[in-house]
Write a structure and sequence with these properties.
With 328 residues, the chain is α/β, with parallel strands linked by helices. Helices cover 49% and strands 15% of the residues. Helix 5 links the parallel strand 4 and strand 5.
């Protein structure tokens, strides 16, 4: 896993080359909304895209992480099916329904049934490399391809893609300092229950952090966002418990009222636990800052797996779940 994380900048660069070369054809109907079906490591890329383009894209961009799809998915919908393996059960189920609605279909996958069906039916598809042993390590591929789909259909400008390009140099240049800080954060979490807070604008990073701790470090944790958690979860910070370790993901351009909220929150939470830490992003825009933080939290999850002496690649319980489902 550490080798896969190390290769993240190279993966982003390769993903940009794949996206540039991809052919995405116009639909015969006007497209007025986007729906993306994808789960786990294949679905989180769509959450980042939704965050990155929300101030530019003039049509709704919705992400689904289940079997069924909304009633509004129709012939005027760009429907993207994202699954690294191409065999994700829930995504395949959603995909069949997307096709039946006459939506503009685009598949992003390394192979499997999704690519087979796309080739057979003549749907647009972008095939990504199949030689990565862990779908969650392929965020760069899915994220970048979805941006290119939106760009090639003229829903966004080239600005976000250029920001991905510049983020590669950012994380390469800061690689060693990222690792050093990640080691400290992993040590901070070790033996405790991690809790992750961020501004709502970068919730995909917080989700990524939680999922990577779950899968790589084999540890439960939770996340929430500000300001929403100020209307509910904050009240739950009542009892003292040193088991909790709180990490805030911060940007220097977080909305000013949210920055004030975070400072007040820390003061309140410190009455329950002394374990509070912050990770500050680097970069000049949302894309760079998010990708910087992603690289940081991926390293945190791996260093934490080392401290816990667990296999960061192994996901036997998910394999067991799938084998049991296959019996039904």
């Amino acid at each position: 896993m550490d080798q896969l994380i190390e290769r993240f900048p190279a993966q982003l660069a390769e993903a940009l080359e794949i996206g540039e070369a991809a052919e995405i054809h116009a639909h015969d109907k006007e497209l007025n909304k986007v729906y993306v079906a994808g789960l786990g490591g294949s679905g989180i890329g769509a959450n980042f895209v939704a965050s990155f383009i929300r101030k530019e894209c003039s049509i709704p961009y919705t992400v689904g992480k289940g079997y069924d799809i909304p009633a509004y998915v129709d012939e005027n919908t760009l429907a993207i099916a994202s699954s690294y393996s191409g065999n994700t059960e829930e995504t395949l189920y959603s995909f069949e329904e997307m096709c039946s609605r006459g939506a503009k279909i685009v598949v992003i996958s390394s192979g499997g049934k999704l690519i087979e069906i796309a080739k057979e039916k003549g749907y647009d598809y972008i095939q990504i490399p199949d030689n990565w042993p862990s779908p969650r390590a392929c965020l760069g591929y899915s994220l970048v391809q979805q941006l290119f789909v939106m760009r090639k259909l003229n829903f966004i400008s080239n600005e976000t893609i250029l920001a991905v390009k510049s983020s590669i140099d950012l994380i390469k240049y800061n690689q060693e300092s990222i690792k050093e800080e990640a080691k400290k954060v992993a040590q901070f979490f070790h033996g405790k229950l991690p809790i992750i807070y961020s501004e709502d604008r970068i919730e995909p990073v917080a989700v990524r952090f939680r999922q990577q701790i779950n899968e790589n470090a084999k540890l439960l944790c939770w996340h929430h966002v500000i300001p929403e958690m100020n209307h509910n979860e904050l009240v739950g910070w009542k009892d003292k418990d040193d088991q909790f370790a709180v990490c805030y993901l911060r940007n220097n351009d977080d909305f000013n009222r949210n920055q004030v909220r975070m400072e007040i929150n820390k003061k309140i939470i410190s009455n329950s636990t002394p374990n509070i830490i912050e990770i500050h992003s680097k970069g000049t825009n949302l894309v760079e800052k998010s990708i910087y933080l992603v690289h940081m939290v991926d390293w945190v999850s791996w260093y934490l797996s080392e401290l816990r002496e667990v296999d960061s690649i192994e996901v036997d319980v998910i394999d067991y779940l799938k084998s049991e489902l296959a019996k039904v």
